[in-house]
Amino acid sequence: MNDGVNGVALVVFIIFFLAVTVIGFMASRWRRAENENSLDEWGLGGRSFGTWVTWFLLGGDLYTAYTFVAVPAAIYAAGAAGFFAVPYTILIYPLMFVFLPRLWSVSHRHGYVTTSDFVRGRFGSKGLSLAVAVTGILATMPYIALQLVGIQAVLDVMGVGGGEDTNWFVKDLPLLIAFGVLAAYTYSSGLRAPALIAFVKDGLIYLVIAVAIIYIPIKLGGFDDIFKAAGDAFSQTSPATGKPRGALTPGEASQWTYATLALGSALALFMYPHSVTAVLSSRSRDVIRRNSTILPLYSLMLGLLGLLGFMAIAAGVKVTNGQLAIPQLFEDMFPAWFAGVAFAAIGIGALVPAAIMSIAAANLFTRNIYKDFLKPDATPEQETKVSKLVSLLVKVGALAFVLTMDKTVAINFQLLGGIWILQTLPALVGGLFTRWFHRWALLAGWAAGMLYGTLAAYGVASPTQKHFGGSAKEIPGIGEIGYIGLTAFILNVVVTVALTFVLKALKAPEGVDETKPSDYTADAGDPGVAKLPPATAGSAH
Amino acid sequence: MPEAPEVRQPVAEPPVVTPIRVVIGLCLFAPFVAMLWVGSYAKVDPTFIGIPFFYWYQMLWVVISTVLTMTAYQLWQRDQRARKAAAEDGGASA
């Protein structure tokens, strides 16, 4: 694959990258408010985004570069099993429709910036809020690292960096530059930068997919030939496992895995801090509901993208690292200049979510660790300053992660992160609809889910790894193979419900609930919502 | 309502569960049934322009679920408007 530098593609890539950098720095002047030194401004873009900006922002946020590389890569490797991403992204939107408007409303009434802010306000428990915050930060870090893996894959195929014969500094220099620039404009522009860049990113992605899905099948002789070639390839026995490499449809045994992965991932998605950040930056409840009806366009694109995995097989793309399959397909199939556009789409596709994720993780740290535990009297200015610095630290951490450890480690931690983040669902979504759960029970349920999920994932071996080899395992009591995250989640709920009964019977002290029922349905224009309180109002009592 | 039209209620709270809300619920729940029942679509035939059933069926459901969510959104808007109007009428006459 390292057959020299693809000059034309590289030039196109650099032009797009420079354009995006300029946009990123100019974004700080876009819709600037008078008081820019607050977390509402830097970390939530002034909570002012309308339907279309939110659509691009969420689309850019949820469908990351890694998704674009990993979903077709999984299909390239094993066929049907990788396609679970499509039902997964179908199920997200009914869920979004149901619970996120409530989170939006209560967050506006009380000036919450993070999910942990809400959990603390609802249950009056700093411990539970800390658990949610730490889980969020832990789950987000490897996710940022994976965005780097996405950029690396593109750079690799273009022939820059990645070569094993050069020294590490030269090899990783392009990645360091890309991330340095990203860190700089995130620092100065906050959430406005990824919001504006998302327009470019998604425009490019839609263009590339539309071209790829028409142009490549024509070159390969139509979908009949593509699937026939893929079917032949999957039926061959893999030397590593002694079983066929994959299948065009999931067999009886793998259907449970498919369904539980789809459901578990869908439940987990809006627990991630970066998804919540994008939702809270929207202008009204209606913007969220309307987005749940227009965001599926991205799912359609994801499905088409998945089909590229089959095309890579039919086109005879041979890569040892599955992550390179799609970039390699682009390079083989497209003229050099358009391959450059496609690579730019993936590269910029990594920058947008990486920026939002680092902002989200920084907000969690600032609000729920720094302010709650270290400096309760922090002013909005101080909060913003800390958040900006932490957003840098988070990125450096992710970079160190990718550069020092094997790529599979990042992928493993990402799988683990999905399992972990799902364990915050009872506190968050439960809290949005009922206050029946006891705060200590929620904490115990969370701990049980985290512990089970981590241990179960540790015990999964794959042909190449002894531990953390995957995220599916036999479900105790059912005997089918299912997503560990979902099993852990059910354990979590059982523990939470059982302990709530016990604690209520014992009359254990409930925390103070600072919210009231009408907070959950308040909309823009209602009293206390239209004019946003300063970022600290939620906890200033 | 024919019975007891004269009784003036201070706050006319409509019931929480109404037919329109049941329909909204079904619209939002249907994709879960369709997608999690993997056995119903784990097959190759019939193919569509060479794409196995398994793949085009799920992509078709992206469209179906979008239509369902849009329907739910429209119904919800209508429900909210009706409730708001009812609440304002109640408030004006009280």
From TrEMBL, chain A:
It is a multi-pass membrane protein. Residues 512-541 are annotated as: Disordered. This is Permease. It holds the Pfam family SSF. One of its GO terms (molecular function) is transmembrane transporter activity. The keyword Chloroplast does not apply. It comes from Streptomyces lacrimifluminis. NCBIfam families: monocarbox_MctP. Gene3D superfamilies: Sodium/glucose cotransporter. CDD domains: SLC5sbd. InterPro entries: Na/Glc_symporter_sf, Na/solute_symporter, Sodium:Solute_Symporter. One of its GO terms (cellular component) is plasma membrane. It comes from the Bacteria. Signal peptide: none annotated. PROSITE patterns: NA_SOLUT_SYMP_3. The chain crosses the membrane at residues 6-28, 49-69, 75-100, 128-148, 168-187, 199-218, 256-273, 294-317, 337-365, 386-405, 411-433, 440-461, 481-503. Belongs to the sodium:solute symporter (SSF) (TC 2.A.21) family.
From TrEMBL, chain B:
The chain crosses the membrane at residues 20-42, 54-76. It comes from the Bacteria. This is Membrane protein. The keyword Lipoprotein does not apply. Keywords: Membrane, Transmembrane, Transmembrane helix. Coiled coil: none annotated. The keyword Lipoprotein does not apply.
